[in-house]
Specification:
By secondary structure, the chain is mostly helical. It is built from eleven helices and no strands.
Length: about 200
């Protein structure tokens, strides 16, 4: 579509991040800026609702429900259609009452910002990462109560693209992260971390 300058996966993630704010206007703003459908799927066949469910982000789920966005389980990205996916694809959406009683919500799940920062970094664009960080009100070094942050997550997964993006965005890493790379045999991450610390 005209005016679209970022990859489809980033656009879908942007819609999810906007929904995670709990403000419908922010979702509509993203749609107006990009001209994409709220039901758009990424290359894994997920739309914004699918991502919200994957992260157990109840605030995003409720926001997308209000906008009539349903999750999709379609995996063929080329089969994308602007029509809403079949409601039965993943069963009915949880009701707002169910969401408010859920054990994990965006309000009390302190792993959620870590997931959001890590997955934004996985696109490999520092500008995109910084935009997401600004939107969620976190930082590149946000660390949850168990000491997990995006850089540690990227190192554990051996995700060099995400780790490089985090480092370029100013992520603070120490010798503990290097030890984590060694313990998990993540040699590419170890090399990247070593270069960064020596700079």
């Amino acid at each position: 579509m005209s005016g679209t300058t970022i990859p489809r996966d980033c656009q879908v993630f942007q819609i999810y991040i906007a929904a995670s704010s709990g403000e419908e206007d922010k979702v509509w703003e993203i749609q107006c800026q990009t001209g994409v459908s709220l039901d758009m799927k990424d290359n894994k066949g997920r739309n914004a609702m699918s991502i919200a469910r994957e992260y157990q982000d109840q605030r995003a789920i409720r926001t997308l429900e209000k906008l009539d966005v349903r999750a999709t389980s379609v995996t063929d990205a080329d089969a994308y259609t602007s029509a809403p996916p079949d409601e039965t694809a993943e069963g009915p959406s949880p009701s707002e009452d169910d969401a408010s009683d859920a054990s994990v919500t965006s309000a009390d799940n302190d792993l959620l910002p870590v997931l959001q920062v890590y997955n934004a970094a996985a696109f490999g664009s520092v500008d995109f990462l910084l935009n997401v960080i600004d939107a969620i009100g976190a930082s590149v070094d946000y660390t949850n109560g168990e000491g997990i942050n995006a850089a540690r997550m990227a190192t554990l997964k051996g995700d060099v693209v995400a780790l490089s993006c985090l480092l370029d965005a100013g992520a603070d890493v120490d010798e503990d992260v290097i030890e984590l790379a060694v313990e998990n045999d993540q040699m590419e991450c170890l090399s990247l971390l070593s270069e960064h610390i020596l700079i």
